[in-house]
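Predict the 3D structure for this chain.
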Amino acid sequence: MLTSLLPTTERALLRRLAVEQREGRVPSLIAGLVRDGRTIWVGTRGRIGDAAPTSDTQYRVGSITKTFIAVLVMRLRDEGRLDLADKLDDHVPGTSIGNRSITELLTHSSGLTAEPAGPWWERTPGGSAEDLLSTIDDDALRPAPRHTFHYSNVGFGVLGELVARSRGTSWAEAMRAEILEPLGMNRTTLAPEAPHAEGWAVHPWADVLMPEPAEDAGAMAPAGQLWSTVDDMARWLRFVNGDTAEVLHPDTVAEMRAPGAVDDGNEWRGGFGLGLQLFRHGGRRLAGHTGSMPGFLATMLMDPADNTGVVFMANTTAGVGSALALDLLDILGHHEPRIPEPWEPRTDIDVDLLELTGQWYWGPSPHVLRVLPDGLLDLAPWQGKGRASRFRPNGDGTWTGLDGYYAGEPLRIGCDENGTPTHLDLNTFIFTRTPYSHDAPVPGGVEGWRPAE
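Done. Predicted structure below.
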């Protein structure tokens, strides 16, 4: 059930959708927004036959299929059936990329060609897995350094076969049993089921259409075969946000959302995690995937920090860009921004942590340690940007970094004979109450401050 938006918000969203449909000359276009676990808006333009599409109308979602394959692989990892550092030869031997890791395939950094050998795979019937694997020879490798990003549809065809061999069934059956049924995604299928859109190409210089083929891609199907609906994609957005219904642990999904071959600095705008496409836009960190197949375009993106997501689907080969999804998120944020919950003092904070709060110095650089409402510690530079992390307690007086530079690193509290904290030992880095304090075991010793001579 849709929750209500302001009329001005709905009008702005609909106008953006209408402009895209008209200027892009799209036969039909449907989009939806999810916030706080609910679908709050669905908009449509154009027609399928003699009616507008609905949130139950299937469209082909293209490479969004890859996100389902990645989840199946991560389930195998969490069950101990494989390790992401495993080489492909450990599970699917006999190709020229046998020394590449599963991580490299998931993050498109294996150096494998983007497309399979043979005719244009998206428009022709697909072959068997054996046929696909036999074409992955030295000619299928690209000269770029293998640690760099190079998108590979073939890599996900290979991962689909890895899933099939590990499960002893087809990847599609594994997906249905392990993902779709538990999540109630009954309208996500390998082949179209009514009601569904037909795929069209629109002539570039005239307002006429040509039907596009929708062949079974065979062994390449894991790269882009699926059909789905706005309702099912809304559920998938919630999954990417961590509402996993035990299909995966939320921590595993968070791991998939983390940048893989991309440094999480301040400049990058797009990249890949473990099977998830990543974008940075307007201060948001988005995870999801885009999709295209002949006659269809789709995008689904989730902002976990804001618990807000967007999906659109169109039955055209070209004419709609991912900017539509970003603009819909921006319109929602502009017209109906979040109103923060009122601040209230906590009654369950461990007051013994208060003596840890305040300024600490890494060398001469001031940092501030705070106790967060959930009982975590937050250590960050006093001014500007730098190495900041949150820390969770381990129950034995030590702490472990959750994110940032110190993710997974140990934090220990150094105390004097009276039990008063004197320093923080953060994986060998010593933080002191005053710059290079004599009371802390600073490596190299402390000679004292003095004026310049």
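Residues 7-23 form the longest helix (17 residues).
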